[in-house]
Structure formats: C-alpha cells, structure tokens
Write a structure and sequence with these properties.
This protein is an all-alpha fold. The protein is built from six helices and no strands. Helix 4 (93-104) packs across helix 6.
Length: 136
C-alpha cells in the first residue's frame, strides 16, 4: 500500500468513517486469526530444513537423470543418422501423436529445451486429424 493511500485511510479513520472503520477492524481480526492458525499449523524450523534438503536432493537427482537421458537421445540420434545416412527420423502417425500428447503437457520453454525430434506444431496436426477420424 502506498504512503498516499495509507495517509488517506488514516485521515478517513480519524474523521470517523464508521463503515471504513468496521471493515478495517474485521479485516484486521481476520488477518490476526489467520496468522495464529498458520503459526499452529507450521512445522518446526528443523523439520522444514530437513524437508527442504530432501526436496533439493531429489531435484538434483532428477536433473542428473534428465540430462543423462537427453544426452542418450543425442547419441542414439547420431548413431541412427550414421547408420541410415538420414538426418530425419520417419515416424508413424501414432508415434507422432504420442509425442505430441506428451509435448503438450510441457511449457514452451521446456519444449524448446528438450523436444528436438518433433515440434509441437508438426505433432499437433496428426493428433487433431486422428481425433477427427476416430469420431467420424
């Protein structure tokens, strides 16, 4: 809240604006009650620290696994390109559909970082056309 707004509220309270005073008191009481509840539900600091350390370790471990799998995909793509002489991999419509479905769950930044084989734009059309065929 800006200083000007705080001063305006203080002036209105001093002038006896009862509606504002009632709202202010109710809000203050609700915030106080909420903070007491939050304090009672909060874990002790050592427990919070242990949970944070565990989450950090799991995150690091998962990041290493993802990096390994990305490198493995790069190596396999290079091996495939060397064996077949083609840079592009030919996928069936079902394979493209499966990749597009999984890719839709990612954010644009995640897609850009990890989706080297099929872009979402090229993968969405087979999904939509396959969906149209299955309904019709």
């Amino acid at each position: 809240m800006g200083i000007y707004r705080a001063n305006a509220l203080a002036a209105r309270l001093q002038n006896g604006d009862e509606v504002l005073l009632t709202k202010w008191c109710k809000r203050s009481a609700a915030l106080h009650q909420h903070s007491n509840l939050a304090r009672r539900l909060m874990l002790p600091v050592p427990a919070q620290f242990i949970i944070a350390m565990g989450a950090y370790a799991i995150n690091e471990r998962m990041a290493r696994r993802v990096e390994y799998l990305q490198e493995e995909v790069r190596v396999l793509k290079e091996a495939l390109a060397g064996a077949t002489g083609k840079k592009r991999i030919n996928f069936t419509a079902d394979q493209r559909r499966r990749l597009a479905i999984k890719g839709k769950a990612l954010t644009p930044e995640e897609r850009e970082a990890c989706c080297q084989i099929v872009t979402l734009e090229s993968g969405v059309e087979p999904v939509q056309s396959a969906a149209g065929r299955s309904r019709g």
